[in-house]
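Private note to self, pasted from the team thread so I don't lose it. Backbone tokens:
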């Protein structure tokens, strides 16, 4: 595992990955399955939440940087200004806004479909001190943790580390999950909270946020604030590949049951994922924040790969069947790219935010199905309507305060 006689891997800068082979092809709104039936006002309100962040990026972007974006930030900012000028929007005017300001494009990337999963905000019991059943620490960001890439671009990094530890001798790899859980960060004053169940803490790392009820009756929110920089590994895939769990029965609930059945065995499997997440405390009224430092909207916020998508972009989803238990019908909905995730890689790979609590967790835990993305390019974009290839993305490190 992580502690052995060999030296740690070097922090050498990896070679740049090969640009992805994917392009956007124009379609009409009439070709979007279920477009007429969607709640465009709900999508509009979610889009509007991103506009201040988009404006900040646009104000700092050079002309060249803006022109290289898949969705040029200046064009997205112009659409935002039009949204902000729309007085007392209704469902009808919101629909007209999207149909006037954007042109839908199908993603062509050599596969007929992409993959959609879900995530949520767990609601748990906890304590600020280690007492009674609350013994599993949740850590805040260490002062010596440095970013190799911007937080919003961490998931699109193909190789190497996203974060490193700064030392007098230079930047080195940070301890792994196993190292940290064996005490690598103990007695440094980094413990933010203590929770009861190590499996719930592990899942909260994957979700990136949590709402914690304390014994004194107060409730706080905690949110992603960096990671140890090691690549994310799916332990669900590890169990399937090693014949320990049936792929057809895999869900977050099934995985949790397996991990808890034998605590020592479960811990060793969780250590297979070397990635470890740090958190910061939010006011309970703020809501969980995505990679844009924008409060996420249940059923409308989408985590994407910023190697392919510009944050703030509207993306229409067509998913014939979203969850295993779903009956007839599908998930046809206009979303907004507002977040990222370590497991979200590819042009048609998305993670739907389902909200907070147990019901949201059940939905997220059983959501895994094929579907299609339709990217809405601003109508002002010169390449809108052509078969355009994905280009370089804007460096989103200019956007957020809080993504240190």
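Design output:
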């Amino acid at each position: 595992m992580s502690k052995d006689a060999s030296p740690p891997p070097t922090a050498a800068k990896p070679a740049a990955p090969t640009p992805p082979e994917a392009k956007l092809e124009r379609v009409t709104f009439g070709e979007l399955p279920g477009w007429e039936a969607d709640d465009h006002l709900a999508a509009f309100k979610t889009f509007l939440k991103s506009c201040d962040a988009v404006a900040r990026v646009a104000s700092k972007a050079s002309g060249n940087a803006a022109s290289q974006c898949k969705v040029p930030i200046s064009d997205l900012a112009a659409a935002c200004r039009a949204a902000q000028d729309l007085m007392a929007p209704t469902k009808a005017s919101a629909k007209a806004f999207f149909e006037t300001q954007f042109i839908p494009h199908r993603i062509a990337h050599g596969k007929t479909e992409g993959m959609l999963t879900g995530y949520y905000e767990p609601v748990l019991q906890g304590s600020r001190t280690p007492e009674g059943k609350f013994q599993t620490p949740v850590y805040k960001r260490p002062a010596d943790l440095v970013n190799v890439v911007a937080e919003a671009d961490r998931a699109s990094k193909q190789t190497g580390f996203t974060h490193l530890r700064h030392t007098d001798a230079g930047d080195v790899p940070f301890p792994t999950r196993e190292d940290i859980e064996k005490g690598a960060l103990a007695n440094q004053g980094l413990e933010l909270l203590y929770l009861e169940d190590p499996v719930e803490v592990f899942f909260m790392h994957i979700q990136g946020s949590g709402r914690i009820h304390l014994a004194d009756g107060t409730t706080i929110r905690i949110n992603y604030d960096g990671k140890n920089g090691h690549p994310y590994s799916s332990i669900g895939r590890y169990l399937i590949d090693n014949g320990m769990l049936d792929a057809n029965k895999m869900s977050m609930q099934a995985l949790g049951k397996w991990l808890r059945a034998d605590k020592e065995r479960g811990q060793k499997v969780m250590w297979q994922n070397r990635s470890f997440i740090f958190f910061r405390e939010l006011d309970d009224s703020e809501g969980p924040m995505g990679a844009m430092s924008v409060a996420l909207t249940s059923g409308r916020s989408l985590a994407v790969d910023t190697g392919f998508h510009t944050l703030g972009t509207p993306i229409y989803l067509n998913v014939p069947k979203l969850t295993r238990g779903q009956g007839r019908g599908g998930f046809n909905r206009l979303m907004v790219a507002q977040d990222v995730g370590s497991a979200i890689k590819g042009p048609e790979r998305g993670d739907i935010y389902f909200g907070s609590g147990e019901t949201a967790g059940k939905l997220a835990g059983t959501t895994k199905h094929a579907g299609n993305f339709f990217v809405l390019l601003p109508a002002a974009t010169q390449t809108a309507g052509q078969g355009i290839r994905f280009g370089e993305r804007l460096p989103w490190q200019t956007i957020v305060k809080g993504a240190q």
